[in-house]
Amino acid sequence: MAEKILVFSGKGGVGKSTVTAAISKSLSSAGKRVLCIDADAGFKSLDLMLGVGNAVYNWLDVINKRCDCAGATAFSEGLPDFLSAPSGLDDGFNSENLKELFEQLDGSYDYIFIDSPAGWGELHEIFSDVCDRALLVTTADNICVRSAETAASKLRKRNPLIDIKLIINRFDKSQAIRGGQLKLDDVVDGVREGLTGVVPEDRTMGKMPEGDMLSFKAQAAFDRISKRITGQDVVFNPKAL
Question: Which of 105, 120, 170, 204 could form a disulfide with 215 if both were Cys (CB 3.0 to 4.6 A apart)?
Answer without folding.
Answer: 204
